[in-house]
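thought: fold this chain, then report.
action: predict
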Amino acid sequence: MPASDSSPNGFSVDVRRGEDGWSVAIVDPEGVDASVRACGDEVEAHTYASTVRQHAYWLSEEQFRRYYRLLAVQEG
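observation:
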């Protein structure tokens, strides 16, 4: 599975290796990082990313936002 892929609810997961180590970003349907979690190593990053991907496929956008405590976009 690629490092970043979009789910039916529009969220994607991006596994990143930076200068400070590994992290996983949950990217919202607009392409903005909704959440970034630091991970201790590559295995932890891929394990967490796999879990988030499963949730993104199983849950509606509203349920996913609530589960991961992501703010809903407010219009107006």
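thought: worth noting. The first strand starts at residue 4 and ends at 6.
final: tokens above.
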